[in-house]
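INTERNAL AUDIT FORM
Audit reference: QA-55
Scope: verify that the stored structure record matches its stored sequence.
Auditor: D.O.
Record contents follow.
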Amino acid sequence: MEAALKAIAEPRRRAILILVRGGELSAGEIAAHFDVTRQAVSQHLRNLRDAGLVSERRDGTRRIYRARPEGLTELRAFLDDFWGEHLEILKREVEAHHRSRNETRQDKR
């Protein structure tokens, strides 16, 4: 989870993930979307690959990248658990507020 968090903390890496989530793209196709050197994009791709967020395969001399959604599984489970607890607390508070409002309305009648 730590590696995934570090990898997606960088805006260009998030943009790369968005590019490759729909299918495979070559490193050159990815680099064409950015105003930095291909070497810089290659470094971002290496970080994403090392974090398990993209897969890389070779097609001749080209490197082809694709998103690996399973690389975010641990992070997603953490966030789901975190938000699940907080949403349950919020739900109870909203329900209590509604009950209180309804009781107040009934008392005024």
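Auditor finding: record pair retrieved intact. The beta strands are 25-26, 54-59, 62-67.
Action required: none
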